[in-house]
Design goal:
The chain has helices at residues 14-17, 124-135, 143-146, 162-165, 178-195, 201-205, 213-225, 233-240, 244-255, 259-277, 285-291, 296-307, 311-315, and strands at 5-11, 26-32, 41-48, 51-58, 61-66, 72-79, 82-86, 89-93, 99-101, 107-111, 116-122. By secondary structure, it is of the alpha+beta class. It is globular and about 60 Å long. Mean pLDDT is 80; it is low at 23-27 and 145-152.
């Protein structure tokens, strides 16, 4: 995956805000002013590999016009709610939900004052590759022609990703860290496919072929030997010669957990070892957490649950100093 790049735009002039940086396919924001309050528009964008993620926050109502973007667009409310005008329909998307918009169709996303939205753009060929990896077979291309994906609210598939998409852009963010960016990319792709009402949906939900524990053991050995690599369910399945769904079902059957949970367990053990071995001043809890692909907010809770004490006690240094 190519190195990410980030932009962070803050604008306090409503006129200039309407020409603020915007990804291709967007006509930029139309701002409805509230004269009685100070104005601030914040547009943060991260591009990593095929993913183009943009977070928009504003003190005033902002109407984003998406004009025939050739990619699928996922709109996820991070704070408040969204109003989506799409194909003559008005769709309200609340926190915990998402809207999936088809390529080549115009749409308008209204972000009410004080709300925030993440817009994630995904190329159709990347979705096809993910669908083929999940099913272990080729699919009809292009996806738009054979598998129309209507706008849909998808709380189970995409809503839980909101906290990760809302991270401040930078090398230490979820999309800036290879250990977390690639799993997040797969989660977004899988979420779009599971949210779609299309012919492959039944195949995605069907029971996968069964495999023996030896396959799982080989993948587990890889995780335990190289936990610092950006493993995902897709890379592990490729190495085992299975579809992603076959590997996930096999893992659940023989281990009682998912490959992602297994990887998190191993990395937490390595982080614990680093905290024990590093001396005061050599590292912080934040740096160790980031090095092993954990968000600062999640790491402490997971560590305390596993080891019965805070990571600061183990390291003997102030938290996130």
């Amino acid at each position: 995956m190519t190195d990410p790049w980030f932009t962070d735009v803050h604008e306090t002039d409503p006129g200039r805000a309407e020409t603020a940086l915007a990804p291709p396919g967007s006509a930029g924001p139309f701002v409805r002013r509230r004269a009685e309050s100070p104005f601030t528009l914040c547009v943060r964008r991260t591009v990593r590999g095929p993913l183009d993620a943009e977070v928009v926050r504003c003190t005033d109502d902002v109407r984003l016009r998406l004009e025939r973007d050739p990619r699928h667009v996922v709109a996820v409310p991070l704070q408040g709610m969204l109003h989506v005008h799409y194909r003559g329909r008005e769709i309200d998307v609340v926190a915990g939900g998402a809207a999936v918009l088809v390529p080549a169709d115009e749409a308008t996303v209204l972000v009410p004052a004080g709300s925030a939205v993440a817009l994630v753009r995904v190329p159709g060929d990347v979705l096809c590759e993910d669908l083929e990896a999940l099913l272990g077979r080729t699919v009809v291309r292009p996806l738009r022609a054979g598998v129309p994906v209507p706008a849909a609210t998808a709380p189970d598939a995409l809503g839980p990703l909101a906290p990760f998409l809302g991270d401040v852009p930078g090398p230490d963010s979820v999309l800036g860290n290879a250990l977390t960016a690639e799993p997040l990319e797969e989660a977004i792709l899988d979420g779009v496919l599971h949210a779609a009402d299309e012919p492959a949906r039944e195949a995605l939900d069907a029971t996968a072929p069964s495999w023996g524990p030896r396959t799982v053991r080989a993948c587990l050995d890889l995780i335990e030997t190289y936990p610092e690599r950006p493993h995902t369910a897709r890379t592990l399945a490729d190495g085992a010669g299975l579809s992603v769904r076959a590997l996930q079902d096999c893992w659940q059957r023989h281990r009682g957990r998912t490959p992602e949970e297994e990887l998190g367990r191993v990395r937490l053990e390595r982080a614990h070892r680093d905290l024990e071995e590093l001396r005061r001043g050599e590292a912080t809890v934040a740096s160790v957490a980031t090095a092993w692909g954990f968000r600062h907010e999640d790491f402490t809770a997971r560590y305390e649950m596993r080891y019965g004490r805070s990571p600061e006690v183990t390291l003997g240094s102030p938290a996130f100093a």
